[in-house]
Every structure is written in C-alpha cells, then in structure tokens.
C-alpha cells in the first residue's frame, strides 16, 4: 500500500479521470506528492467533518430534513464535494469541485492511518464514514447513483422488463410504496439475499431463488454493506502496514495524536485578560462554568484545597477565562490559607506551580487550558480528586443528585443520563448548557470548557466584552497558513503533554 | 410376529446392538463428508454425546468412518448431536491457541417443537402428540420447505422427525453451510410470523400490503384449516375455546364489512387470516437457527426414554398387554418409548405417521427374527475384508427392519446432493476449459 506524503511518481493527465464522480469508494489510494501542510490541513478538516457527522447524528434523526440541512452546511463550510458536476461553475476565489474531491480522497486515506490502530478507533471511523457515505449517496440524483454503481463494478443485474412484468404483483406487495407504474419505471436489481439481510429480515423485499429484488431507491443499503466490508478489510490491512509509516518522523506526531486531537480554538490567547474580577467568580461558577469547573470550584471553596490534577484543570481554565497571573496567585492563596496551608507554605510550595501554569517558570511553556477530550481521556480522578469530567467520571446516581441540586428538570436529567449512557459526554454537557441557559439549541458543538464559558457569556450578554472570533471556533479557515499554527502548536504541545496518551493508543 | 420369549430390554442392551448392526454409518459418513470437496470437513466436525446417567460430552471428533463406528460402539451414546465444522479438530481444541479455534460452517437448521403450540392446541400438551395435532407439523413442513426452496433457492433439505414431538430441517446446500450468524438470523426472522409469548394474546398482526411469502403460507394453512381446526381441534366446540378465538378480535367485529372474498378486513387488517395463522403457522425457535456452533440432534439418533420409572411401568404393562393383546397392542402402547430420529419423505408427507416410526426395541426385535432366505450368502461374504463384510451385513440387517424405508429416503437425499455436486464440477471445469 502506498502512502501520501512519500516521494511518489506524479500522475499527470489521468487526474481528471480519477475524480470524475463526486462520490467514491476509496478503493485506490492517492498517488501524488503533497506538502506536510496540506497533509495536516486535510486531515484536520476531515476529522472536523466526521465529528460533525457524529454530533449531528446524535442530535437529529438520521436522514431527516434537519439532519440533511445541518450536514449540508458543514459540508460547504469545510469545502468538501457535494453533488455538482466536475467543471461546474468555478466559484471565484473558492475551491473548485475538483480540488474538493481531491481533498476528500486524500483526507480519507490519511485518517485511515490514524484510525486503524485499535478496534474502538476502527469502529468509530467506519461508523462515521458510513453515515457520511449514506448521506452523500442519498443526495445523488438517480442517474448519478446508477453511474456510481457501474463505475464501481457492483455487479448487480437489473431485472429485465419481461421478468418485472411477470412478477409485477409480487413486487408491488413486497415493497412499501410501490405501485404498478413505479414497478414498470424503476430499475430493480437482483441481489443475492446474503447482501440484503436487513431487507430480508424485515420481509421488505421480494425473494426468488435466493435473490432479493431491490428497487432502485433501496440500493443504498446494499451499497453501504459493501462499503462497510471493504473499509473494514482495508483498515485491517492498513494496521498491518502501519509501522512503516510511523517510522517517518514527519508524520508520526500528527498521526498518533489525530485520533484524540482537539481541533478548535486553544484559548491560550488571552482576549479577556484582566476583565474578570475575583469577586465575580462565585457567581460565574453557577451561571457560566461547565459542570466540571463548577464542581472544582465548589470543592475548592469547601475544602480550601485541591490536588494537583484539580489545580491544573481548574487553574488553566481560569487563565483561559481571563485571570491574570497576579489574580490567580491571589485567588489560590486566599483559598488555601483558609485551609491548612499558611501563607509562607503557599508561597513555597504552590505559588511555583501557579506561575508554571502561566509560563513563568521552568521551560516557560504557556500551557493551554485542557480541552474536553483531554479532561475526559486522561488522568481519571481517584479518591479525593475533584477533577475530570463529571459526565464521564461520576457515578450516574451521584451525577443525578448533583443535577437535581442544581435545579435541572427531571426530564432534562433523564436526557442527560441517556447521553451519558451512550458515552456522549460532551453532548451531555451541551445538554446541561441548554437546560441551564433555557435554550433549545446550544448553537455550538462543545469540545472545550472555555468554549462553554465563552458561549455562556455571549448568551447572557455578560459584562465581558468578548470579541466574537466566530471564524476561530470549529470552522476551518480558508487560509491554510493560519490553520497550521494552532494545529502545529497543538500537536507539538500535545506531543509533550500527552506522553501518557501514547500508551493509550499502543495497546490493542 | 414377535416370539413369546422376546423380552424388551432396556437401552443399555439395545443401543450396542443398534450401533453394531443397524446404524447406517456409511451413509452418515457420506453425508457429512460432502463429497470430500473441502479438506478435513468430516475431521473438523463436532459431535456431542449424551451417555448413560446423563453424562454429556462435547467436542468429539473423528478422523475416519471406522473411528466413528468404533467410538460410538464403545461409548454407546444415548443421544447424538451434530455441531459445526471447526477450524481445527474439535477433540484437540484445547491445544489450539486461544481465539483461533472457531466454528466455520454448519448446515442451516430449523427446529419445530410441538410444545410451542400449547396455547393453540386442545388435544395434547407438553411432550404429548397425537394424530390430531400432528397436522401442525405437516403444515409447518409444507410452508417452510416451499419458502426455503422457492424464496431462498436452497435445494438440499433433509426433514427429520425428532423422535418425540417435533421435526428438524437440515439445509445442506454449500451456500447454506457458509451462512453467517447474521444471515441465519435474517432467514429465521423472514420465516417468523408468530410474535409474542405468554403475555401476548394477539400474536399475528398483518397489514397491507401482504407479502407474497405470507400469501403462499396462507394458502397452505387454508387447505388444512377447516379439517384441522374446526373438526379435529374443535376450536369452536366449547365456550372456553370460542372465547379464546374471540379474544383475538376487536370488540366491534360484528359491524365489520365482509368483502367480496369473504375475508374480514377493516382498515388494512385481516382478522380471519390472522386467526388462521395464529392457530396453524409454524413456530420456530430463532436461536436454534442463528448460531453457527449450535448443536442439534442427529438423524438416526434415538430419543432416549425419560427414565427408569417409565421403563419399569412400560415393561410390566408390555408383558401384560402382550399376553392379552398380542403384538399390535404392545406397539400401540409403546408410542412414548425411544423412537429413532428418521428422515421424512416429503412425497409421502400426508400419510406420515409419527407413531409408525420404529422404536429401537422394535427394530432390535425385528433383527432377531430368523432370516429365511439369506443364510447361504453369509459364508461366501464372510471371506471378504472384515470391514466390508461388516458393512454388507449391516446393510442386510437394517433392510430387514422397519428402518429400511427411512434409510432409503436418506439415500435418495444423498444421491441428489452427489448429482448436483457433479453438475457443479462439470460446470466449473467447462468454464476453465478443462476437457
């Protein structure tokens, strides 16, 4: 198998044939050179797309109108190919359809490298790619669907007109929504029943001599099964060839961290520095803090102490919402002093680590506040810890009690617990946002505690002038150069900070 | 005619005789080898035995027909189950690296058990069956056989009477043996119409449009319904049973329009059809069909007696009855003892009588009868190779018993498979231009 980014022969004119359909099965890996920048950009953008597919799929009924609308929007903003013909109107200054298809192709293969390593990753990747494929296939015109099948050698014979006529009554009664006219007009495909199990199981198709007679519009189910099988096999093969790729140091950091990469704003740029006063924190914790930070703040106030994990998570968050170093020092000292720590001990032992967080000590890295991914995946809390993600780390019963204490409605609590059961922790937190702010739709896809804070303040019209950097959150930027900085910084930092996560991905 | 000295022995005595002289080993081996097309197909097949005192042993496997015979004659299983063809020899499964020992193929099987119909039959319950409710099995076989052949395109189906209260179907096509768990479960669900357990009153719900499969099944049920349900089961014969029928109908049924075909239909629902199906449509256990590694009772296995108590009672009764009523009376009274699990000839399905299926005691007893015309041949044949002689003797032996006609059904089944394999190989070699 050949991997992008390596020195390979450039293919010339046949490139046009390669992308003559907006949808593909990703059977052939790309065979060209691309820059590392493009490599990263493509990968990150597709990852964003797949995460949106996942989130939208949980929030809306798949393939309903709203689902389609939301996905359409994501598609356009991330510049992935939709259903237009190649060579259609070139949008001035935008990406051409050809370039979009190329990106689609290459980004898929890059993500295969990142997601082939464990069973869980493979399963997630296949699920999202399948949903994505189903959505895109569904949006094709009938002609394009047939084109696609032919181009991909799906050797399903169409049923001849005479056969259709002789079986007309049976065909009408076996599939919902067919009439005599549609049976005549539509193509029917003869598919071996083993390839159409869902339709056979529910008796929604006509069976004869081991073949299912599938109407044109149902063919997507069959195609999806085929897609899943192919992708599954391909991922297994990729996993076997992976060591060769991982030895390339240019690719290794990105690939090993892509699967848990946070792909949004990093909140290290202090837009709001100095705009929060310490007196506001208590009030803000109830109104605009995500549950994890509210929990940490409460624990700090009650115990006048937090352990290292809690100090990091909460301390960096506070930095992200705008606390200056001096404010932070004052904040932590005043709290710790109420407990068992006197002022001198604080200055000796704890002040150092606060300054460290702000990049004023040691190797002077200005640490970025933790994303939800990091909070959820790394450093689970043990007895006496208050950090972590309550939706992930708290016992559901305790979580329920806490939500009740915070006056969340019973039906809301149930919705949250359902999401937790499905392991959609960030969506659960988003639901918490929606319930506590009394809105139906949060309007953003939560993946960072500071994002929660920013959005909350925006909604409440809060006293902080937060510059609306709409372009910076979740939307990719048109200019690839800008994109590389946060992702490079992220991957570098990720590499340093998440050493323990490497081992997470090393076991099967 | 049984001689007056004949003493019905119990299973520990009859079974060794059965396995030495009557069990059709060569046909059995021929079946499970499937023409030797796949290497080690027979060797990697799992068998399980239930021995005396209910000892159950799994992962039995054999390398040759001879070994199978010797082991069975040695262990004398009371019951034999057939499992899947595995990736390695089942008898060595512990020596295989964990995770690599896997079930690869098995026939697609169905198990229809009369106890699943207890809520709709009045004549018997639990393990009892009689000629009145046996019709349910006839209906089940007709419906499923048609569907498996016409809808799914399978050709090689072996229907077997389980020996007591039901039937099994073994679908032996190549394609069937290779089916995945998901595919098996999809086939079983396609064939299922009865949904719901104790709690559910109305177990069949039909709505427009009615799938061709349901229509085919209905036409079979309609053929038998009047005679079976109204006459034999007498479902309208008592208030209690009439109430049961009425429970399946909505309360305002009398106001419903009856359409031109005399079917009661309102709002896309077909109550008369639903009732007929609820009373007669086959009830499958999906779990039996789903698993590739599921073990199912083997054809030609016996159905062991239920216990010592029954044996002593029936032994005493037998002696009494035999003295009073002669052989016929005894046979009739023994309908609950160990019958052989025999293949059913679908051409004679309407006249199949489960009570005519031979019991092990009967065929052993038939074996003991003096042979009139075959005495001379023995000396000649005995000089041949011992195994061949053994087989020949066995063939002569079962031919003298009531088992003969059932082995013939099995033979025909095997021949059909052999013919079709040959046809396939010819096709393949033609395609490869191999002449």
UniProtKB/TrEMBL annotation, chain A:
Cofactor descriptive note: Binds 1 [4Fe-4S] cluster.
Disordered, as annotated region: 468-508
UniProt KW Metal-binding keyword: yes
Segments forming domain DNA primase large subunit C-terminal: 283-453
Gene3D superfamilies: 1.20.930.80
This protein's GO CC annotations: alpha DNA polymerase:primase complex
Polar residues composition-biased segments: 473-492
Residues at which [4Fe-4S] cluster binds: 292, 372, 389, 429
Family according to the record: Belongs to the eukaryotic-type primase large subunit family.
Annotated keywords: 4Fe-4S, DNA replication, DNA-binding, Iron, Iron-sulfur, Metal-binding, Primosome
Function: Regulatory subunit of the DNA primase complex and component of the DNA polymerase alpha complex (also known as the alpha DNA polymerase-primase complex) which play an essential role in the initiation of DNA synthesis. The primase subunit of the polymerase alpha complex initiates DNA synthesis by oligomerising short RNA primers on both leading and lagging strands.
MF-aspect GO terms: 4 iron, 4 sulfur cluster binding; DNA binding; metal ion binding
Subunit structure: Heterodimer of a catalytic subunit PRIM1 and a regulatory subunit PRIM2, also known as the DNA primase complex. Interacts via (C-terminus) with PRIM1. Component of the alpha DNA polymerase complex (also known as the alpha DNA polymerase-primase complex) consisting of four subunits: the catalytic subunit POLA1, the regulatory subunit POLA2, and the primase complex subunits PRIM1 and PRIM2 respectively. Within the complex, POLA1 directly interacts with PRIM2.
Cofactor: [4Fe-4S] cluster
Any one biological process term the GO annotation gives: DNA replication initiation
Protein known as: DNA primase large subunit
InterPro entries reported in the protein's UniProt record: DNA_primase_C, DNA_primase_lsu_euk, DNA_primase_lsu_euk/arc
Native organism taxonomy: Eukaryota, Metazoa, Chordata, Craniata, Vertebrata
This protein's record includes keyword Metal-binding: yes
Automatic annotation (TrEMBL), chain B:
Annotated EC: 2.7.7.-
Pfam family, one: DNA_primase_S
Keywords: DNA replication, DNA-directed RNA polymerase, Metal-binding, Nucleotidyltransferase, Primosome, Transcription, Transferase
One Gene Ontology cellular component: alpha DNA polymerase:primase complex
A GO term for molecular function: metal ion binding
InterPro entries: DNA_primase_S, DNA_primase_ssu_euk/arc
Catalytic activity: ssDNA + n NTP = ssDNA/pppN(pN)n-1 hybrid + (n-1) diphosphate
Basic and acidic residues: compositionally biased ranges: 380-394
Disordered as annotated region, ranges: 371-394
GO biological process, one term: DNA replication, synthesis of primer
Homology family: Belongs to the eukaryotic-type primase small subunit family.
Annotated NCBIfam families: primase_sml
Name this polypeptide is given: DNA primase
Species whose genome carries this gene: Cyprinus carpio carpio
